[in-house]
């Protein structure tokens, strides 16, 4: 299981683990629980000390751009199909037709307005 923490949650968790260690809370925890807590503290330290590499940053950026293009393409195709079939175009109907979430369609609402308006040459 992976857990994503924001900066405040991360800082709080780290502080609590350090305080638990300083106050010798091991007597209140089982050996297994204390070991798990120390393992978590170690992983937090390892993760915090690793800077994000340029390669990983670029890979993440490319993956995000690909996801955006795919979502816009699905939305575009759905809008064009709905126009062709003379269906009512709403955010909910586009989301259903495109197979994406309502929020994704709302996110790209400006693009939809361009697609839904017939282009004149």
What are its keywords?
0% strand, 2 domains, 121 residues, 6 helices, mainly alpha
Layout of secondary structure:
Layout: H1 7-22, H2 31-49, H3 54-84, H4 91-98, H5 102-107, H6 109-116
Helix pairs in contact: 1-2, 3-4, 3-6
Describe this structure in words.
The longest helix has 31 residues, at 54-84. The chain folds into two domains: 7-49; 54-116. It is elongated. The protein has helices spanning 7-22, 31-49, 54-84, 91-98, 102-107, 109-116. 73% of the residues lie in helices and 0% in strands. By secondary structure, the chain is mainly α.
Kindly summarize this structure in a few lines.
The chain is 73% helix and 0% strand. It is mainly alpha-helical.
Q: Briefly note the structural class of the backbone.
A: mainly alpha
Summarize model confidence as the mean pLDDT: 82
First-residue to last-residue Cα separation: 53 Å
Number of helices: 6
E-strand count: 0
Q: How many structurally independent domains? A: 2
**CA-atom Rg in angstroms:** 24 Å
Percentage of residues in helical conformation: over 70%
